Amino acid sequence: MSTVRIIGDSLPNMPWQEKPEGAAGPVWRHAANPVIGRNPVKGIARIFNSAVVPFEGQYIGVFRAETINGRPHLHLGRSQDGLKWTIEEERIPLTNEQGEPFHPNYAYDPRLVKVEDTYYIIWCTDFYGAAIGVAKTTDFKTFVRLENPFLPFNRNGVLFPRKIDGNFVMLSRPSDSGHTPFGDVFLSESPDFVYWGKHRHVMSKGGQGWWQSVKIGGGPAPIETSEGWLMFYHGVTGTCNGLVYSMGAVILDKDEPSKVKYRSSTYVLTPEEWYEERGFVANVIFPCATLTDADTGRIAIYYGAADTYVGVAYTTVQDIVDYVKATHEEVGDDAGLGIM
Ligand code: BMA
């Protein structure tokens, strides 16, 4: 019997496949992955680490598009079913708040989150090095870039889908300027999306799970459930052959989301399929978005695979919450408020 509920909208036409017999873990892959292959659009070599939302009965996405000159930019895509995508050839026409064109040097790993009636794009931008960029739209025609919320260096900006206690809440992962060999997840609040503060530590890397021993970073926008905020994230380990990115899951306190309630000691998805193990960067699973249906508890997770493809995976809120509780491990002082 289902006891855990998603607190959100119904989405009966979201992509879905039932759990196959003998699935190894609580998350299973879409059988026809990858849903976006190489060279999907003229001038774009690879699309991965991207975000989607339901919009006007269809789906719209902000995609990390690696152009054929090697730079990542953000491109819009549309889909009837959330699986077959039409991606625009031109990058998203961002403007600044005065309405003038604004072109970030590079833009990658977007998240796309609706708060009230506005859609926010949060990405990794160039601000004297890697930092968090933000923009907003209500119609997916005009996109206004807002002030950068945080100082460099920082990545993996993840906005909560509603205000908590009247404030916007954003996770981020402070880091270094390169392929950062460290990183924990922090949380910041803002009353106006301009001034950010009340910074809290949320989660450390590590614990018994060596799959997340090097660094971690937030994933899709947290999903509100009757047990708290469910968040998928990436955890990274080092090997003699380079880094390996897996997906983990955590449940944060509903009212004080800097507190970890349950955190899975094991990954919930790790590179196993050819499109995850082989590509521009081998062995990467990097989740950036989910679609959910509150009526059935279904969750579809969009993830970048091997910095080359987009994959979709599924779970239900009951499956994943049960799994996270059953494999829970407390890491350091993560269960506290995160104020030193
Ligand atoms: C991280 C980010 C991600 C990428 C991952 C693996 O530092 O740059 O965009 O998927 O490395 O290359």
TrEMBL record:
Membrane-traversing stretches: none
Entry GO MF terms: glycosyltransferase activity
Keyword terms of this UniProt record: Glycosyltransferase, Transferase
UniProt cross-references to Pfam families, sorted A to Z: Glyco_hydro_130
InterPro entries according to UniProt: Glyco_hydro_beta-prop_sf, Mannoside_phosphorylase
Top-level division of the source organism's lineage: Bacteria
PANTHER family: 1,4-BETA-MANNOSYL-N-ACETYLGLUCOSAMINE PHOSPHORYLASE, GLYCOSIDASE
Family statement drawn from the similarity comment of this UniProt entry: Belongs to the glycosyl hydrolase 130 family.
Protein name: Beta-1,4-mannooligosaccharide/beta-1, 4-mannosyl-N-acetylglucosamine phosphorylase
Organism: Paenibacillus methanolicus
